[in-house]
C-alpha cells in the first residue's frame, strides 16, 4: 500500500531520513520489506515545519516515483526541519495525481495514511456527506485517506485528536457494515499540528499494517556510547515509521495492535485505541 515516516526532535536535513539510512524511505519506495507491495511508485510527498516557528507547514508533492525525482533529492539536501512527515504512495485504485499524494494539509495540520477503506466507492457517498460543509470545500482529491482526514477534522481533531480519530474509525466501520462491507478499515496514520505527533495503528480485522517507533535516545546512548549520531540529537528526538530504517539492535519497537501514540515534549504516550460512534 504505502510507506511513511514521522520525525520530531533536533532539526535535521530531510535527507538524513529520506536518503541516508540503509533502509531509507527512498529505498523502501523500491524495496519495501514489510509492505503489501514491494514497490511504492505512485507519487510521494513531504510536509515540514520550519525552524522559524511558523505554524503553517510547507508541502512538496509529486506524482512520479520518489526514487527518480531530482527535485526531491535537491530539496532534501537543503531543507532542515524539527518536525516533518514523509510518504511514498502505492495507489489502492484512485488516480495518480498531485491532489491524491500525501501529506494532506488543513491549516496547521498534516495527515498521512497507509491502508484503505474497503469498498470505498460503495461507502464514499455516505462518508463524504458526513463531512462538515465548511471542510468539504477544502477536499480536492479523490482518496479515502483525504476523506478520513476531513472526517477526523469534522469530529474534533483540532480539539481532541485521539477521540476524533476514534470517532472517525467508528463512523467508517458503521457505514461499511451497513453496506455489507466486512472489515471496513485498515490503517496506520500519523497526524500533527506542528507541536505533537499522533500515530495510530488499527484495522477492523485486527491484523494491521506494520508500524514502529524509535527507542528513547537516552536508552540508545547507553547501548551505543560510541555512536556519534546519537550524541548529536536531543533526548526528545523520536521517529515513527512503517518499517525500520536500519538494523541497529534495539533501536525500533513495534507499535502494538489497536494502539495510538503521542510524541510530545516530556513523556510520550502509548495507549489503547477504541473506535466509537460520533
CATH architecture: 4-Layer Sandwich
As for the number of domains, it is 1
Give me the secondary-structure category: alpha+beta
Helix amount:
25-40%
Which assembly state applies to the chains in this document? single chain
Radius of gyration: 18 Å
The number of distinct β-strands equals 13
Integer average pLDDT: 96
Low-confidence sequence ranges: none
Main pleated-sheet profile: 7 strands, antiparallel
Count of helical regions: 9
Give the strand content.
Answer: 25-35%
CATH class: Alpha Beta
Q: What characteristic shape results from the CA principal axes? A: globular
Side-by-side strand order of the widest sheet: 3-2-4-1-10-9-11
How far do the termini sit from each other? 28 Å
Helix and strand pattern: EHHEEHEEEHHHHEEEHHEEEE
CATH names the topology as Glutamine Phosphoribosylpyrophosphate, subunit 1, domain 1
Superfamily at the CATH H level? Answer: Aminohydrolase, N-terminal nucleophile (Ntn) domain
GO molecular function: transferase activity
Pfam families: GATase_4
Organism: Krasilnikovia cinnamomea
Keywords: Glutamine amidotransferase, Transferase
